[in-house]
Amino acid sequence: MSPARNAGHQARPPDFSPREFRASLGMFATGVTIVTARTASGELAGLTASSFNSVSLDPPLVLWSLAQAAGSMAAFANGQHYAINVLAADQQALAERFAARDVDRWQGVEFVEGVSGAPLLTGCVATFECFNRSQYTEGDHVIFVGEVERCSRRAAASPLLYHGGRFYTEHPLQGSQADPSAPQAPDDRFVGSYLGYLLGQANHAVYRDFENAITAQGLTHIAWRVLAVLHDAALSPDEPAGVAIGQLAHDVLAKQPTVTKLVQRMAEEGLVALHADAADQRRTLVLATDTGQRIAAALIAQAREQETTLLARWSPREAETLKRHLQRLAQGR
Questions:
Q1: CA 272 to CA 258: how far, in whole Å?
Q2: Which of 7, 146, 236, 307 is the 20 to 30 A CA-CA neighbour of 179?
């Protein structure tokens, strides 16, 4: 059955770029799922998806969507069953792994087989075992509607959240509550209280050990930021990877001519690939190569480990509040 359309009328052409559209969609906070299946030949398939929603209570229906170009399309389109695993707050690493390319997503992952053979991941807050009821092609995605045959949940568990391109292990607004600790007396000394100086000290504390890891890869700080931005852009298998040079310059806090020369050199070193736009150099797309992705992934793992050490004495709420306020400061709010 084809979806109903508004016959005789057409939508106005969009006045925004794909990147702007994606950023706007990111303002809708969602949970995070991993959709899993076992093919007829016994192979495991799985991917991270936030495009999950309920459709009907009677019969029990849910939906999710997958890019037509996704490598796992055949596994889900041709199979009769799949499972939707809603991730818990402590499963961010699992979400990132099942969103990454060129990795063994299933290595060491604990799961049990569902009633129809689809893998049910251990530790999730909820699972939905679905019959592959129907599929609808819309634009560059296929919408899957699943009829739920079994479902389960962990009532006391907290879900992993996704908003604005970031994962949250607590609700973002929880950190807005007042800190119960007693306020400290103000420091009248300029050096000890000026925001710019404090941020500089904090930046040094965060980067002083990590700088060695960046240097060991033969990278400058700007080159490292380029790879980090491209790594994030490639996280979703449902979207085309690549960032325009103009946007990349904005994201890495550098001037466009500087970034243009840098990415050209990084392309010669095999770290990035360039898809030139003859009409406007700022719109040249930059993509990380497999080598660039591996280096970025290794550095990101080191950065996360160092961050965990630095924030070991902070509660998760305090750490999330700190990041949220720094984001607001960076955005001029």
A1: 16
A2: 307
- For 182, the token pair is 């007693």
Task: For residues 216 and 267, give the distance between their C-alpha atoms in angstroms, rounded to a whole number.
Answer: 19
CA distance 315 to 225: 27
To the nearest 5 percent, what fractions of the chain are helix, strand and coil?
35, 25, 40
Token digits of residue 311:
């924030």
Alpha helices in 58-152 (DSSP H): 73-78, 92-99
Task: Name the residue ranges covered by the structural domains of the chain.
Answer: 28-168, 193-330
One DSSP character per residue, 42-61 reads S-EEEEEE--EEEEETTTTE
Mean pLDDT in consecutive groups of 10 residues from the start of the chain, 333 residues: 64 80 79 94 93 91 92 92 94 92 89 94 94 93 94 84 80 43 53 78 79 84 90 69 84 88 91 80 83 91 87 83 85 72
Q: Is the pTM here over 0.90, yes or no?
A: no
Beta-bridge partner residues of 19? none
Reference 45, options 6, 73, 4, 85; nearest CA is 73
Q: Residues 196, 197, 198, 203: what is their CA dihedral angle, to the nearest 10 degrees?
A: 90
* Per-residue confidence (pLDDT) for residue 173, from 0 to 100: 42
For position 2, what pLDDT does the model report? 53
CA atoms of 230 and 101, how far apart (whole Å): 13
Q: What is the pLDDT of residue 204?
A: 79
The class of domain 193-330 in CATH terms is: mainly alpha
Residue whose token pair is 């466009």: 256
Q: What pLDDT is attached to residue 13?
A: 84
Q: Position of tokens 């990084």?
A: 266
DSSP helix/strand/coil, 199: helix
Fold of 28-168: Pnp Oxidase; Chain A (2.30.110)
Helix (H, G, I), strand (E, B) or coil at 103: coil
214: part of which helix (H) or strand (E)?
A: helix 210-216
Could you tell me which residues are beta bridge partners of residue 31? Answer: 161
Which tokens in the block code for residue 9?
Answer: 């009328």
DSSP state of 159: B
